[in-house]
Amino acid sequence: MIFGHHHHGHHHGHGHDHHDHDDDSGHGSGHGQDRRRQGLLARYGRFAVAFVIVAAAVASACIVLVSPGDAVVVTRFGDPIHVLTAPGVAWKMPAPFESTIDVDLRLRTTSSGLQDVGTRDGLRILVQAYVAWQVPAEADHIRQFLRAVRNQPDVAAQQLRSFVGSSLEITTASFDLADLINTNPAQVQLATLESRLRERLDEQALKVYGVTVRQVGIERLTLPAETLNATIARMRAERETVAAERQAEGRRAAAEIASNADRDARVLRAKAKQDASEVEAKSRLEAADIYGQAYSSAPELYNLLRSLDTLDTVVGDNTRLILRTDAAPFRVLVDGPPNAATPAPQPAQGSRQ
Questions:
Q1: For the chain, what are the domain ranges?
Q2: What are the residues facing 133 on neighbouring strands?
Q3: Is pTM, for the whole model, over 0.85?
Q4: For 105-223, which CATH superfamily applies?
Q5: Cis ω on the peptide bond leading into residue 96 (within 30° of 0)?
Q6: What digits encode the pLDDT tens for the residues 151-184?
Q7: d(Cα 78, Cα 162) in Å, to the nearest integer?
Q8: For a tag site, which of 101, 136, 286, 341 has the least CB within 10 Å?
Q9: Any residues with CB less than 8 A from the CB of 112 and at least 6 apart, and which?
Q10: Which residues lie closer than 8 Å to 310 by C-beta, 6 or more apart?
Q11: Dist CA 329 CA 314 (whole Å)
C-alpha cells in the first residue's frame, strides 16, 4: 500500500512537470520569433542608412559648383574635357574617373619694378610700370593658362614681369627724353608710351600664357645722376632760349613803339608847322589889312608906328647910330609925334621938304 501510493504520487508529479514544460516551450518560441523579426528590421535599417550615405557621397562626388569669378575645368584621367565658366551647379563622373580644377578669373595686378632703359636720344631713365591682367572666361585661353603655368598665377606674374622689362626697353627706345619728362605738359607723351606698351604685352601674354592685359600704366619715372644733370642742363638751355626770345620780342616791341612815336611826332610837328604857317599867313594878311585900314584912316600915325617898328628891329642894346635926323625914320626923334592942332615949326617943315 505504501509503495503503491508512493508510486502513484510519483507518476502524478511526473505528468504535471511534463505539462508545465510544454507550456514554457510555446511561450519561448513566440519571443524568439519577435527577436528574429526585430533583428531583420535592424539589419534592413542599417542597409538603408548605408545606402543613403553611399548615394549622398556619390551624388556629392558628382556635383560641380562653379563660383562667380572662377572657372572649373573637368578632367578625365588628367585630360581636360570640359571648361565651366557660368556660375552654378554642373555634373561629372565621380573620382577617380573625373576630377576638377578651379581657375581664378579675377583681375590681378603685377608691378615690373624699376627698369633701366634707354631713350632715342641716348639717355638712360628708370621706369616702373604696372600691369592689370586676368585669365579671360574662354575655354581655349583657360586651357592655355593651365598648360603654360599649371594654374599658378604667381608663375604667370613672374613671366609678365620679364615681358614688361623687355617691352619697356624696346618701347622707350622710340621716344626722346623730352617726350617723357618736360616742363610743358603738352609735350609729354606718357599716354602714347603706355598704349604702345600695352599692345606689345597683350599680344605676347595672350599668345603664350592665355592671359589678357587689361591696363598698363607708368607708376614711377626717375632719372639717374648723369641723365638728371643732362636734363637740368637741357631745361636751363630751354628756359634761357625762351627768355632770350622774350627779351628780343620786348626789344622789337619797344623799337616799334619808339618808331611809331617818332613818326607820330614828325607828323604832329609837320602838321603844327603847317598850321603855324597857315596862322602866320592869315595873321599877315590880317595885319596887312589892319595896316591898310590904319594908313587910310591916319597916314601920319601909320608912318610913325612903322618907323618905330623899324627902329625896334634894327637897333639893339649895344647899337650906336650916327644918322641924319632929318631922314626917316629917325626924323621922328627930332620932330616928335605929329600934331594936327599945332603946326610943326618951319625949320622942320623946310627940312621935310
A1: 41-103, 105-223
A2: 108, 213
A3: no
A4: Band 7 domain (3.30.479.30)
A5: yes
A6: 999 999 999 999 999 999 999 999 998 999 888 8
A7: 30
A8: 341
A9: 128, 129, 130, 131, 161, 164, 165, 168
A10: 329
A11: 11
